[in-house]
Amino acid sequence: MTRRVFHCLALCVAGIGIAQPSLKAQEPTPVIPPLVVSPDSSATRITEKPVAFTPLEEAQKLYLMGEFDQAIKQYQSLLHGGSDDAVAYAGMARAYLKLKQSDEAYAAASKAVEIDPYLATAHSALGEVYFRQGQLYEAQTQFLFPFKLGPGDARSYLGLERLYRASFNFMRAKVAIDKAHELAPKDPEISGDWFDTRPLPERIQAMETLVDSPTNFYSRAEIADVKHHLEVLKDQAQHPDRVCRLVNGPESSEIPLVPAGDSDHPTPYVALQVAVNGAKSRLALSTEGSGITINDKIAEKAKVEEIVRTDLEGLGKQNPPESYVGFVRSIKVGAFEFQNCYITVVQHVAPGSFYDILQGTISGGLFRNYLVDFDIPHARLSLLPLPKRPETENADDARMDSSDPDAAKLHDRYTPPEMSAWTQLYQFGSVLAIPARINQSTPELFDISTVALNSVSPDFAEKWTTLGGGVPLFYGTNGRVDARWTGKVRLEFSGFYFDTPAETSLDLSVMNNQSGTQIYGRIGFEVLKNLSTTIDYRDGLIHFDNGQEHH
Question: What's the predicted TM-score (pTM) here?
Fold first, then answer.
């Protein structure tokens, strides 16, 4: 439209004051010849020829097709001291990340930066590796470096979006992903994150396209997850009222905690009494996630409406239990009622596994409109008013910087003065993490979980303590877990420390793959049962209190 208006203005202005010849009694000169197809049978046939890609383009094509091993081989064939070496190493780093080989990815990305310290894609690739390793500050440094030299590249914006989202800076995340999509709309990871921010019809269409796509860029497990999520979104599109909302609740409240198990199935965890569609249950209270999960016995009593079969992959070496996403009209907890919610139901669990012993879990994130205090020493869940956010925020800046005006409706993390000493949380999917360390280690990301026991990943444990014999009868979501004892551990976090003669060491790769970053251990129930743990799920802040001076 703009181009058309420009041509009109140019012609009209040029014609002012110039005598125009008369066309009367003149035959206009034809400028478009008549459409004629020659019947000549001797015409030469055009044969289709393949498009010629450069070696770098061929490697990138293999990467986008999900042929990561072949892409790495193609990139390696380019490494002959040429000017494209840094680009090839950056591409190799991303392919290694898709293969979950972070050490090889780190070596390749570091080499890319070494060869060309001013190449934006080299720095963003190294930032992606740092993010996968849980080194968030180092990742941020690499993602921001290209902006010192120019506008940055699309992957720099993608990396920043993921960092901002993990740190509860949702407005900044929206601005960043809009910029990334503007620069590289065909990048599958960028378009995936961007469509997650779009209206429901666009998200459904994008997910349908992805499911029908021939690419192997995403694993079968990832595509299965997309299919499950797609069915839930379609159900929500057909039933717009199915948005889980708190319909009544006081300004503040205290709800008693009860043992999560019973005399036949003892467990150390605590629980809330919950009515699901009127069916009474005792659900273990979890710091993680934002909803509820119940077993099939409670689901049958509650007459849960099944929406889509899904997977429930967790810790354990036995097969994952069968599960489905279901819909319920009512969830009542104390004086609170949530209506029109999707929940997860687990079926056919392994004997002795988590959901064989427990009736289910309920997340403190369900009460995110409150400050949520997990006061386990006093056996109560306290729900308190959230602090007020400033009336004026930088919405105008977001509207100016983002291609999507919806960014102005989002908010970034706000820390009120009275909460300045609180610890910043980081969120990766359902995982909530804070910096912690064992013995004399560097601070690393540890998961906070009231429905898990303390644990340390094997590599981290081997570096900073000792590894001993196996732990008998250790069960997770998927049944028996291979675990080992460590030596003495001093766990330090948020101004507290906790000494123990031994911790469990177990493989956390399932959680790491789901979260997209490295979680080095868990601060579990053994520690949290001694503390009052208050979480601000809105702004990602956490505070621990043992009722005494810190020791």
Answer: 0.86
